[in-house]
Design goal:
Formate dehydrogenase/DMSO reductase fold, globular, 343 residues, two-stranded antiparallel sheet
Length: 343
Amino acid sequence: MNAEILNESLTYAQWLPIIFIGLMGLAVLIYAILDGYDLGVGILLPMQSRDEAQRDTMIASIGPFWDANETWLVLAVGILLIAFPEAHSMILMHLYIPAALMLIGLIMRGVAFDFRAKAAVDLKLTWDRTFKAGSLLTTLTQGYMLGQYVMGFDSHWNALLFSCLSALGVTAAYSYVGAAWLVMKTEGELQRRAVRWARRAGRATFLGVVAVSMVNPLVNPGVFDRWFTYPLVMFVLLIPTVCFAIFVFNDRLLKRMPKENDRHCRVPFFLTVAIFMLCFSGLAFSFFPEIVPGKLDIWEAASATESLTFILVGAVIVVPLIIAYTALAYRVFLGKATALKYH
């Protein structure tokens, strides 16, 4: 059915699921990048008492953005629920527990972010630890869910082991982009620490990407055929090649940082964003048009054409507005993070 649809001239009804999977993919990608860096900053928070000033600066660097970044997760899940309800039910049926744990982690972050400013001085470190723990719980559960998705929600021990490996890989990736964010937004000793964090997390992320890239084609024969069929293989293998080159270049660049006058401080972050985009493109290429690997494609899972048409009107209005206020927020708070103040 998939090949027949893709090889035919698509009708309006067949285009609608493609539009919505594109919107959902965009929301997931932006969420992984934007909330990824602030989750990474939370993971990297140093917990020694002497590091309080650095923790304040790290929190200040994400303060104007972190809550709004989660809007993209809400949008992605909303699109999945409304546009692909059957896929939503199937995915949540398998991932209910890790999804619940992820929400607990997000709640811990939100509570800790506010209470660290209002609690007694001797409790501030406790709330910082809660923020760190919530960030770590969120990233681990998201990585576990990604691993389960790639493995087709298999419950055998090898699939669970791979999902745990994926949890560590996603945690490393978020730490990588979080450290790169700090390189861009901070100065002095904290920036130097962020450079060291970025190099270590980058190498761990590279190992995670290699592991997923090797396992995915092995456990999904359709993915193997898609990636290694001639002559398409000549083009799609550019994705891992370019990704590898960026990893190496970013590591070499970070080795020479910070530079005089803070030159190139933004480059590691945007190179890390490029890695996220390439990895996401590889996953999308591996599974499209399936929305649940090996079980359900986007046309089988899609809502009625009338429903999709109705919510498309709302999406055309809402998505550009979210993009606009996100861009405005980053434009207003452009520059280095300053001392954290609460009014």
